[in-house]
């Protein structure tokens, strides 16, 4: 009744708003959520665009990081500097030629971390660097620690 009578329904992200309208992700409520989709919105949790602005972010003004404008020339130069600074900070080889993959979130199947764990041998066999930050399921935390110990670069 709450979903039907609500003026607005808010999900934790646009992606989750979409997911809960699928039969698999809706856990039995998908048909109702699709019917009431006009009032369903996803929000971005806790991002303050003034604080996390790449042009003015104080965190990008030290340790080799660089502020940059959010346009093609700015991104091409600023992100390159920030990637190199992050690689240095984390003790990774500075390699502009390899993708640096990052994940920050809860370590849980719902976030796809189990897929990273299951494909770790293939993934780490590619020429990539993987950076992850999070806590959650103990078995996933242990798997990620093992991946880190086995692949420092």
Provide a brief overview of the structure.
The protein has 153 residues and is an alpha/beta fold. The protein has helices spanning 2-5, 14-19, 30-35, 72-89, 113-118, 120-125, 138-150, and strands spanning 9-11, 40-42, 100-104, 129-133.
Structural class: alpha/beta
User: Beta fraction of the residues?
Assistant: 5-15%
**Tell me, what's the shape?**
flat
Tally of contiguous helical segments: 7
Distance between the termini: 53 Å
Number of DSSP strand runs: 4
The oligomeric state is single chain
Largest sheet: 2 strands, parallel
Which strand order spans the largest sheet, edge to edge or round the barrel?
Answer: 1-2
Residue share in helix: 25-40%
- The residue-averaged pLDDT reads 90
Q: What series of H and E elements makes up the topology?
A: HEHHEHEHHEH
Explain what you see.
By secondary structure, the chain is α/β, with parallel strands linked by helices. The protein has helices at residues 2-5, 14-19, 30-35, 72-89, 113-118, 120-125, 138-150; strands at 9-11, 40-42, 100-104, 129-133. Strands 1-2 form a two-stranded parallel sheet. A two-stranded parallel sheet has the order 3-4. The longest helix is centred in the middle third of the chain and has 18 residues, at 72-89. The model has no long low-confidence stretch (mean pLDDT 90).
